[in-house]
Amino acid sequence: MRNNKSLFANIDWTLVCIYLLMLFFGWLNIYAANYGEGIHDLMTMSSEPGKQFFWIGSSFIWILLIIILDGKFYTTFSYPIYILTICLLIGVLLVGKEIGGAKSWFDLGSFSMQPSEFAKIGALLALSKFLSQLNVNLQKKKTQVKAFSIIALPIILILLQPDAGSAIVFISLLLVLFREGISNTYLIVSCSAIVLFIITLKFEPQTTMLIVLVISIILGYLLKKNRQSIKPALIGLVLAIGFTQSVDHIYSEVLRPHQRSRIDLILGKIEDIRGVGYNLHQSKIAIGSGGFLGKGF
Q1: Are 120 and 151 in contact (CB under 8 A)?
Q2: Could you say which of 17, 65, 141, 199 is the most buried, measured as most Cβ atoms within 10 Å of its Cβ?
C-alpha cells in the first residue's frame, strides 16, 4: 500500500478534470438520447442511462484501488498479467463464443467476457515495464523488435478471431514508442501506407501509379537538390508499387464483407441509407438539424 500522505500527491488534476468532464457529457448524451415525455425510470438498471451511471460509479472503485496499490505491484506483475491475457486470447480462439461472426467472447453464463479488453491493459503494462528498464535504447533494432513484438502478438491473435476493430486500438500504442524516441521513419511509412491504401481503393490503378510516380519524382528532386542520395525515393517507389498491387488482395480476402461495405460507403462508392449507411445518414441529419450549438437537452 502507498503512504496515505502521498496517495494523491502526484495526480495530474487537470487531466482528471478533463476526464470527468468528458465522462459527464458522455453520460448526458446517453440520458438525452433516451429521454422522452412520460418516461420516468431513466435512472434504473432497466434503462441505458441507469446502467451507464452504475458502471461509472463502479469504475471509481477500481480507480481508487489502482491508486492505492503500490507502484511495485505493477512492475512485478506486468509480464505475468501480459502472459495471462495472451493465454486468454488463445483460449477464446479455442472455446470462445461466436458473436457477429467473431469468436471474441467467453460465455460465463449470466454474462460474457471479452479478453481483448484485458489484453489492452496487459500490453500497456508490459510495454511500460519494458521501456522503463535502464538498458533499453529504442535506437537499436533489437530493442525495436522486442517492443513491436509486445504490441504485435495480441494484434495477431485478435485478428484471428477476427475482430479488426479491437485490433486497431492496439496500433495507438505505437505512439508511445515515438514519444520514447523511436525514429519518425516508422510513423511516416505507416501514414503513407494508410494514405496509399485509400488512394488505391478510391481511384483506378493507373491513376494511383501516376500519383506514386509523381510523388517519387518530386521527392527524388528534393533529395538531389539538397545533395542527398535519391536511394530513399527509389526504394519508396518500389515499395509503393508493390503495396498498391497487394491492396486488392487485402481488400478482397482479408477484410470481412461488412468492413468492405463501410469503406465503400466512406469513399462514396455506394449509398445505402436504409442498410449499412443508416447510421451515417442519420448522423448527418442530426448534425444538420442541430447545427453547431445543438438544440439543447
Answers
A1: no
A2: 199
Nearest Cα neighbor of 23 from 57, 50, 48 is: 57
Report the predicted TM-score, pTM, of the whole model to 2 decimal places: 0.70
CA distance 69 to 73: 7
pLDDT one-digit tens code per residue, 114-142: 888 889 989 999 998 888 887 878 778 88
**Could you tell me which residues come within 8 angstroms of residue 33 by beta carbon, excluding any fewer than 6 positions away?**
48
Q: Look up cell 492496439; give the residue.
A: 170
Say yes or no to pLDDT of 4 above 60. no
> What is the C-alpha to C-alpha distance for residues 252 and 220, in angstroms, rounded to an integer?
33
Determine the pLDDT at residue 38.
Answer: 55
**In terms of DSSP H, where are the helices of the chain?**
13-34, 48-68, 71-95, 115-131, 141-159, 164-171, 174-179, 185-202, 205-225, 231-249, 257-266, 278-290
Rg of the chain over CA atoms, in angstroms?
A: 24
Burial class, 233, CB count within 10 angstroms (exposed 0-12 / middle 13-18 / buried 19+): buried
Per-residue pLDDT tens for 243-277?
887 887 777 777 777 778 878 887 777 777 777 77
For residue 200, the Cα-to-chain-centroid distance in whole angstroms is 23
The answer to whether the peptide bond before residue 162 is cis (omega within 30 degrees of 0) is yes
